[in-house]
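Researcher: Last one for today. Full complex below.
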Amino acid sequence: MKINKNLRSNLITYGIVIIAFIFCQLAISPDVKGITISRVMRNQLVPVCAYIVLAVSLNLTVGISGELSLGHAGFMSVGAFTGVVSASWLASAFTMVNEAGKTVPVMSNTLMLILSMIIGGVFAGLAAVLIGIPALRLRGDYLAIVLLAFGEIIRNLLNCVYVAVDGAAIKLALPLAGSSAPTFGQTAKVVIDGAKGTKNSVMSVAFNNERFIVAFVLVMVTLIVIFNLINSRSGRAIMAIRDNRIAAESTGLNVMKYKMMAFVTSAVLAGMAGALYGLNMRTVTAVDFDYNMSIEILLIVVLGGIGSIRGSVIAAVLLKLLPEQLRFLQDYRMLVYALVLIIVMLATNSPLLKNLLGWLGSIKSIADFGKGVVNGGKKVRGGALRGAAAVVGGLAGGVGGVASWLEKRQHALEAKADGVKKIDGKAGDAE
Amino acid sequence: MSQNMKKRLLDTKMVPVPSISIVPERDVNKRPVLETRHLGIEFGGLKAVEDFNITVGPTEICGLIGPNGAGKTTVFNLLTKVYQPTTGTVLINGKDTSGMTTEQANRMGIARTFQNIRLFSNMSVEDNVRIGLHNQIPYSMLSGILRLPSYWKAEKKQHEKALELLSIFGMQDMADVKAGSLPYGAQRRLEIVRALATNPSLLLLDEPAAGMNPHETEELMRNIIKIRDDFQIAVMLIEHDMNLVMGICEGICVLNYGRIIAKGTPEEIQQNPVVIEAYLGSQNKEGDK
Amino acid sequence: MISLLSHLLNGLSLGSVYAIIALGYTMVYGIAKMLNFAHGDVIMIGAYISFCVVFYLELPPVLALIIAMAVCMVLGIVIERLAYKPLRQAPSLSVLITAIGVSYLLQNSAQLIWGANTKAFPKMFTLPDANLFGGNVHIANNTISMLDGRLNVSGNTVLTIITCVVIMVALTLFINKTKMGKAMRGVSEDKGAAELMGINVNLTISVTFAIGSALAAVAGILLCSTYPTLLPTTGAMPGIKAFTAAVFGGIGSIPGAMVGGILLGIIETLGKAYVSAELGDAFVFAVLIIVLLFKPTGLLGKKIHEKV
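Model: Here's the assembly. Have a good evening.
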């Protein structure tokens, strides 16, 4: 079989990820001098892998299936919480006594991590089935808002859940109105402590290369699943429904089935990433997975290009690692994100650009047209970024001006208030 | 509905619908591919289609004509279950389709094209046809993800079949082109190929010649007959180009204000005064005034 | 019994705020066919502006209300012109993402200007002390007490409900009786046809955004008078809930926004009071999901046929 365009593009993406992984391994290894990586960066490696998986899986919903999901963090949190519970349970239910006479888990940390990721994925998938059955019948804005609502419900529920493991038993409590945290008994170990979040006592938080390898494998599995899905009968059905639902129905496609397939696959992957993320931290709370996190993942997808898997991978790495390097921009980071979202959308939908592309297409062959689209896209992205930078600069100046005026005014008012207090005080003394 | 329209509807004389079917002779003793009984739909009290009865033979080419807004596309939407009828039933190959979805109707053997083209415009020409083959050459999602042998086998079969179908219109060279960037006429032809790929027993074409020049239309006519002959299927088409309708349709059904006002062979329809009146307006009444 | 009545009144008040916000969502959705995600953040901007006017400039609250409404009006129009207008023909996914971007932009600009710390919202409007109905109703300390002091209602509650009714009546009259109101209805039915009839579509959409944003400013002040903590994220959650209310009542329908808002406010208050304080928000969203499951067009919404 000849290597077609899709396959070549997918191979490039796999290649980029593998090369990046090898580079990281070299940098981590103490034997290799010359390539090093800072501690901060090294600790970011596993979370970055989780974010790649999250972004790629969200791109399946947004780019391939064409539905905006604002509840992706919800699936991630389901995965994170169930993942931490299952790891704690695996560590507490299957134990043995080692040579030193200590009770230790039978399974290695890596095996427990892998199993917990699978369990996290399964639970996130179940949640997706539950929410998908009613929600996927809705379209566009309605679906987006329902998924947002779903994410918030999950966050609310997880905020009130208490879970403990006691030997092979899992104890769960969901106290309602006003009641305090439940007690689980002497031998029980609390794993999820209501609003205080998860307690991960199984795995160390310090960087662990085996965990990084598992994370890398998860990224590769995600890419393989998504690429193979896209280039198969099911993936084509998903894209056909995105392009034209009525035509897809008239051509004999079961719309709900394929929307569900994309949605659940995306949720399972998000759940696995969530479990990885949760087990890499000492604690995660339900509040960590709020609407803002869903938006952050969406931002990665938009920035990488909706529908472009490779773009999502690269954008995830940049967006998670760059802020560490650009500390000075910290205050303006979210502002820049917001502007980038707007500007990318405006640029990709501007009629001027479309006309330009149409003109390119008419003077060249259709194959060149494709190149034109890609190059045009890149140029626009560059232009958009430059534009964004200019706008941010202007805005920052304006905002800074207002803020400093407010500050001055605040000081003036405080001084005045102090004055009043002093007078009051004197009056009080006099009495 | 405006007062004027209501009045005109009442004025429209109903010719007795011929009791004999317009099914061509060769199909008379075979089970019809499509039968509708008192089919009708209301939108907020407005009867868009009313008491629509038609029988289509298994290899018939039949035309559905009528002035703009007569309810022709609504009939197609009823047949394909995009709309659920308020009254009556649709039988495909003798089976009742009540309560079915559009997808199930397609699996029953009814495929269609659209008046305002509905291609999967971001996908390639070949992939559009492969969507049509979706239920014909299946394999599971798992074998797709794991790239099992059944995946490779089915993909190869889909590829070959898609090219074969595209070659009906000589489009096999465009297989890799994005469907949305095809010229208008080619898009209409691709829609027909995609519909054919679902292996239908009845093909519904909604204004297949719209936007085509006379030369293209002529080629389309030949191709419609060829499709009927090669695939042994029935074709029902909505068309405003009377050369096409009168040229290839064996039976014609005329719709006005949601009702059938005439059925018959092209010759009968051309001479039917009610049809002429519906299309051109009443000459006599003008004269009376 | 009395406590139920008191919860109902509080729910009615919260629901009235939701209703006022939901009006903005529903009007914009009806006319521009887009979910203005940033609407909730316009509320927050309105609250901050009125806070600044009262706190920094030390002007009277009425002026604060007017200035906040004016600023939000301008903000609404500017947002529409710069961010949404270029996307009128774009797929709804792009529009929604842009709206989310605008929402984020407003939140983060507010954080840069006013800081991330909570601002204590000043008391704006208080009821005068009085004795009414032969001494059966006392008003003191901005609290109305009835039934021998067993039922106490905050002045803000009453004020909010009254404001909501006034806005409702005024808006209904505006939509049904004025030329601009008719233009709005025309544009919401069919933008193209309205344009051919000589309606200035751009102006109509701008006016819609202006009215919606001005209402958001009012809602912001009412909201912060009842819950006097002001943060850059103050508007986000009420905004989302108000959208839920608009969907609940049937999006595009003005009475629907009203009914949906008030019902949602009561459901939330009662849920928090009787079932679980922590899960109050979950109730609201569960209602949304259930409504959309059984009646996707909402309580008073119209069914739209997709043209094939």
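Strands of chain B lie at 34-43, 46-56, 61-65, 87-92, 95-96, 110-112, 202-206, 234-238, 251-256, 259-264. Residues 209 and 216 of chain B are 8 Å apart (CA to CA).
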